[in-house]
Amino acid sequence: LTPTESARVWFRSACDSRVEAVVNDSVSRTFEVPGDEALREVAVYHPDLRTLEFRVKSGAAGFVGYGACFAGEGGVTVDNYSIRSNNGRALFRTSPALNAGLQALVSYDLVVLQYGLNIMQQGVYNYTNYAAKIEKMVGFVRECFPGAAVLVMGVSDRSVRSDTDFERMDAVPHMISYQRLAARRSQAAFWPTSDAMRALGGMERFVRNGWAGKDYTHINYGGGRQVARALAAALHEGVRRAAERREFERRLELMRMNVADSLGERMVRSALFTPPAPIE
User: Fold this and answer.
1) Dihedral angle at the C-alpha atoms of 247, 248, 250, 255, nearest 10 degrees?
2) What is the pTM of this model?
3) Distance CA 61, CA 17 (A)
């Protein structure tokens, strides 16, 4: 949407290939890529990069493209790996080696897991088995993206039709409890999406405002924007609290050092200035 200064393309070329990058429909460069199963990257830099065309000139038979990133320095970049009706199990069908290769190139700071909405059923309150799968998901993410923090987002709010109107699905708070427990057991962060939506009026208000579908289950772009703002505010608040905690620990350590120094000084003074014992 706006010009940038850099772009990166990620791909895998099993056999030798030749690729061409064309910037702004004018400047081009050709790269000779030796065959390898590892994830590769072509990085392009231009002071006013508006368009990038990427052509595989030869070796296309063993070539797989995975994505491109148009993001300058600074700010926050979000990659969304969305699979329709995915309850999280599809994650295990991805390649840990390929994911780790992407982590080496991109260096993700945070991986967010948002699943479970379609698992819930009215009147079902026990999600022990699904909580165990969440723990496995967190472990798999850490295997694929070493060094990245993991955040489990609780299910979004959901309503079902009652005799007179729509009401909150009774399974929502139970699923959230199991998700929170799974995050705690796997030492991942947790954020209750449904609570944030309820603070904004719940699914009923989301539907009235056009932020969610008439199925009272799935939020849309407008609803996602509201949830994103709440999540961003929570992240900033978490950063603020973490900074305060680090500063408190730093000052506490300084106090301990000062106390230790004062005790040491008194011991030295006592040793130097103790009067000699009388001669017998």
Assistant:
1) 140
2) 0.80
3) 9
